[in-house]
Backbone:
């Protein structure tokens, strides 16, 4: 119908193209009201509010005089279960079938998402709140547990040994996994062939390795067969076995995103493979690689099980990873909460808080450094690059005496 | 303007293809050597883990034979051990976790990609990714000190009214006695499953959200232009497009749930018999068995633990393999960082 009208209009207008038809405002026409384009309408609010009130009343009636239920959790669930059909009923009074389904789906998705996010935030807040009591004391971060027993108050002793232990272990693990992992990812991308495919398949399979099995492997080889004592080094090795496939896999994905044109441009300029990797591919993928490494680190820091089998447990500060047991933050949490003593449990929550703050710092660092596609610059980088290219133009045109010349040369003449 | 130069064919000999000679420079040769070397090192480490696992497990597997898969007890030094009970426990915990986590994660992913206000989107994405990086021991602590005490009421209610479903019944509980102790409802597969579900939900959610957000804008707008409601558009465009990613993400979460050690270890009280009643006290998992028994082990008992570890590894390997195959075959691309 509308199509025919359009055609007739087009035909009636002389000339090759239909002109835009402008309606002239009559001088005495009433002021036009701006149409509301908001997607939320007042009736939606009324329907939700009304359904909520109705559901609350029905649930209250059920709980107080009809059913033998009394749990507050049950009250919330029953209210919700009554709310959804009531809302559907209210909406169906002035909407058609698909619209009713749309509204109900929106309500269900919103509420499920809200419950989930709330539960996750609650889990984290719970640890932080219960641990806050321990975190208030500065000695919690500056002392070790060597002279503190389960009955001592929170004002003595702390988890410095676990913080130092975690940092040493992850440091050694990173010293192994970063060069090996990134180089292996480069290998997977640069040197294609059957062998590469085999390595890639194996690495992908190994991302499924449960962390406890990585710990068991180092425990059986390094400690039982080679006869080394339980130490920070053994724990770092177990962490490396666990982190290596994770880092290689995500670095591989990032390197694959480097545009092929950049690589070809580099080859076309006559540079070799090594030059291309070092000057083009790695710098382009730098932010993504950093993110891959940092997220792998967060994963490695948080795992308890590889450390549980390999590091041993100590209460005093040990900075030598080659000798003597060394404890990490998650393992220290685990040791604390095994004790029935209340102060130790509070210390356990406090240690979990320290661990989460460490992970948060790593995560924020990953977000600040990474999270940008290759070639997507920050404002500062873009400014620096513009300045660089102005200098280049200056240098090439040979006019370096005055700024006036520079502006002339940088603005391209039409 | 320079015209394109077209060579005119003459009677001379036809153009022979130029011989391509690849000259590999000195630095490139070293680079390739190092790259190949690191590939070989990684290959060696990874296969060493796998081979060592298999070799150490072989001793125990040879002595027990097929009964390794059917025995429920775990007394390696007495010669009577098998993974029937612990595999059932592991799978039950993982199934509870996945059946809770997948709908929740899908809802959060849909909310973030379709419903959330644009200003809050980036915040929610960061929040979910951060949750995925939270150490599992934090979830374990919450389960041990909070959930354990507060969920017994729910467990009692479910077993009272739905006890006629076999796996929801609880032995040794008397629903008619309101003062019966609630300890029979603690340390169950159900509680461990809830904790693991919270742990894996952010991982599943971030894979799903990534896939949903890649839905082609043209198809979305096409659906809206045909008059679809938002939910209609989601059902007709987003969900079919993201199906592969949803299944793949859930499988990745399942793999993590199967291998989770410490959160489960803190909550369950191990039993070595097949215990299919998920609400009842007592269950077991492979990873927590290893954490429990690695220390006081004889050489043979350690070999038995390796056999259990091998079984777990093979299970997670199969799950991961299926996940990556599904994700790779689907339209939604290979966005599946484990």
Residues:
């Amino acid at each position: 119908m509308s199509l025919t009208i359009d055609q007739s209009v087009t035909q009636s207008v002389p000339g090759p193209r239909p002109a835009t038809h402008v309606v002239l405002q009559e001088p005495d026409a009433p002021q036009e009201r701006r149409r509301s384009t908001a997607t939320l309408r007042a009736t939606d609010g009324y329907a939700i509010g009304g359904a909520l009130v109705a559901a609350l009343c029905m649930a209250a009636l059920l709980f107080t005089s009809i059913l033998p239920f009394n749990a507050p959790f049950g009250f919330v669930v029953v209210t919700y279960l009554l709310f959804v059909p009531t809302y559907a009923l209210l909406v169906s009074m002035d909407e058609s079938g698909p619209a009713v389904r749309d509204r109900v789906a929106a309500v269900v998705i919103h509420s499920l998402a809200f419950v989930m996010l709330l539960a996750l935030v609650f889990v984290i807040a719970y640890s932080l709140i219960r641990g806050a009591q321990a975190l208030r004391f500065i000695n919690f971060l500056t002392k070790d547990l060597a002279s503190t027993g389960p009955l001592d108050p929170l004002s003595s002793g702390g988890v410095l040994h676990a913080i130092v232990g975690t940092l040493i272990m992850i440091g050694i693990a990173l010293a192994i996994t970063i060069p090996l992992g990134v180089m292996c990812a480069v290998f997977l991308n640069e040197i294609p062939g059957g062998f590469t495919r085999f390595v890639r398949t194996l690495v992908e399979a190994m991302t499924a390795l449960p962390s406890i099995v990585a710990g068991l492997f180092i425990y059986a080889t390094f400690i039982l067969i080679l006869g080394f004592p339980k130490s920070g080094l053994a724990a770092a090795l177990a962490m490396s076995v666990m982190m290596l496939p994770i880092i290689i896999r995500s670095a591989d994905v990032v390197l694959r995103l480097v545009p092929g044109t950049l690589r070809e441009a580099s080859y076309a300029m006559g540079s070799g493979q090594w030059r291309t990797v070092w000057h083009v591919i790695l710098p382009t993928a730098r932010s993504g690689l950093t993110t891959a490494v940092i997220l792998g680190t967060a994963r490695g820091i948080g795992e308890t099980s590889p450390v549980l089998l390999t590091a041993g447990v100590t209460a005093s500060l040990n900075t030598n990873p080659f000798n003597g047991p060394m404890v990490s933050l998650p393992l220290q949490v685990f040791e604390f909460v095994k004790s029935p003593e209340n102060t130790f449990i509070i210390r356990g929550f406090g240690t979990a808080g320290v661990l989460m703050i460490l992970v948060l710092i790593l995560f924020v660092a990953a977000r600040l450094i990474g999270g940008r596609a290759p070639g997507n610059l920050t404002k500062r980088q873009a400014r620096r690059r513009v300045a660089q290219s102005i200098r280049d133009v200056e240098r090439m045109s040979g006019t370096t005496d005055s700024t006036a010349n520079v502006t002339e040369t940088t603005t391209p003449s039409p | 303007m320079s015209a394109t130069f077209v060579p005119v064919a003459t009677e001379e000999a036809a153009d022979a293809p130029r011989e391509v000679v690849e000259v590999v420079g000195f630095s490139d040769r070293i680079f390739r050597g190092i790259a190949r070397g690191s590939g070989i090192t990684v290959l060696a480490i990874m296969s060493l883990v796998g081979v060592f696992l298999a070799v150490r497990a072989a001793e125990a597997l040879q002595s027990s034979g097929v009964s390794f898969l059917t025995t429920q007890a775990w007394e390696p030094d007495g010669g009577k051990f098998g993974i029937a009970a612990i595999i059932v426990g592991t799978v039950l915990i993982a199934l509870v976790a996945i059946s809770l986590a997948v709908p929740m994660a899908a809802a959060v992913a849909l909310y973030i990609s379709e419903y959330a206000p644009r200003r809050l989107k980036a915040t929610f994405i960061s929040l979910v990714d951060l949750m995925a990086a939270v150490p599992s021991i934090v979830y374990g602590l919450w389960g041990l000190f909070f959930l354990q005490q507060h969920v017994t009421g729910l467990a009692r209610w479910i077993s009272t009214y739905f006890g006629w479903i076999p796996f929801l019944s609880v032995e040794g509980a008397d629903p008619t006695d309101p003062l019966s102790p609630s300890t029979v409802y603690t340390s169950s597969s159900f509680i461990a499953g809830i904790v693991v579900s919270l742990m894996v939900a952010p991982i599943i959610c971030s894979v799903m959200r990534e896939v949903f957000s890649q839905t082609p804008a043209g198809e979305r707008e096409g659906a809206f232009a045909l008059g679809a409601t938002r939910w209609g558009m989601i059902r007709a465009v987003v969900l079919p497009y993201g199906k592969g990613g949803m299944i793949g993400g859930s499988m990745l979460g399942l793999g993590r749930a199967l291998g989770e050690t410490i959160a489960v270890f803190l909550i369950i009280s191990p039993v070595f018999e097949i215990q299919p009643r998920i609400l009842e006290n007592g269950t077991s998992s492979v990873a927590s068995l290893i954490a429990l028994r690695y220390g006081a082990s004889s050489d043979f008992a350690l070999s038995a633990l390796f056999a259990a570890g091998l079984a777990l590894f093979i299970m997670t390997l199969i799950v991961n393999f299926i996940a990556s195959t599904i994700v790779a075959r689907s339209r939604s691309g290979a966005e599946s960082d484990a």
User: Anything to note?
Assistant: Chain B is about 65% helix and 0% strand.
